[in-house]
Design goal:
There is one protein chain. This protein has seven helices and 24 strands. The chain has 378 residues and is mainly beta. The strands form six sheets. Strands 16, 18, 19, 21, 22, 23 and 24 form a seven-stranded mixed beta sheet that branches. A five-stranded mixed beta sheet has the order 8-14-13-10-11, with no helix packed on it. Strands 2-1-3-4 form a four-stranded parallel beta sheet.
Amino acid sequence: RNRGISESNALAAMIRSCGADSTFPEGKIIFTNTDDVRCRTRAGTFDDTIRELETLGVDATTLGSAFPRNRPSIIGMSTGTPRFNINDAGNVIVPGAICENLTSFGGEMAGKPGQTKLTAFLKHGAAGSSGTVIEPFAIAAKFPHTRIHCHYARGCSLAEAYYQSVSGPFQLLIVGDALCQPWAVRPRFSVDGLEAGQDVSGQVRMNVNYEDSPVPVAGIEVYLDGQLVRRYPRPDEITFDSNAYTDGYHELRIVAIAANEIETQGRQVIPFTVANGDDRVQLTCDVEEINWEDTVSFHAITNCGDEILLMQNSEVVARGPQSNVVFRVTGRKLGRGPVTLRAVVMKDGQEVSSQPVSLTVNGVLRTTVTNTIEEIGN
């Protein structure tokens, strides 16, 4: 809205940053150092920050102009200027970068047109930026300390880096991909004993192997259908009794936690079906892609329960009182982009779920902050 960026630009920024995790980007982090009070406020931190980044294997430098120009690979930036023309600067901002600016109204989108807004960085490749929404004065505590880039380079997420760097965040608006981790070293592990799509019954035993992990593993968390069920101190075997769960589709998520200060996570998600009894729910859809003005049909069948629920995440989209029902839903109700639905029957207070069905709802994305629209796939 107003002086923000378009919906399509915002979506593109999120897609870019999602692909930046654990890429260990190469390039320079740039600190602008001029006589402007916006730069002088943080100038005393530049040398120490650059030395710390060098110990982490990350290249950084100061620049004696208000804004960099023609830089081929910017992996981070801290500037101090009220206005800059990012379109004409000729820089390449690497996906995953944090780029932020110390000035008065970088986060004030509705008014104050005289200063460049934080969203300019997001539109041109940054994963995150920030700006104040009311006059903060040149008080360093209200903006990120330059060591934000050190926290990030150690493997912290964008949100973790920001909130370790701002001691007075009362006027600061932070925007971007909070979970982006370009320098994260993720633990790796393999699991034997349960494969994606497998039918299981009785006791399930899985062996866990950490030999290929680039970082030591401190522990494991096990989630079933999104609920934490157990924590292990780095087990070699994980077991669970499938008799404790309803028949039908379930999702096992195993999260390994690194044995370091960051506690970086690596995970595996294994969908499977419990088949201890005869309860079954099935959901089918004949199409993989629709337009948001279209109506799509889902066919649900079950041999248990009196009512079938069509669910998108935790929301009930439709319900039918039969064991064999066709749901007709508009794409507009499901929302644009990739969507996933399940048919669910309640039995003894618990869900019996079908395997999920996924499809893409195509729609229109705003390409400017006016009423101009552009047809786009997903």
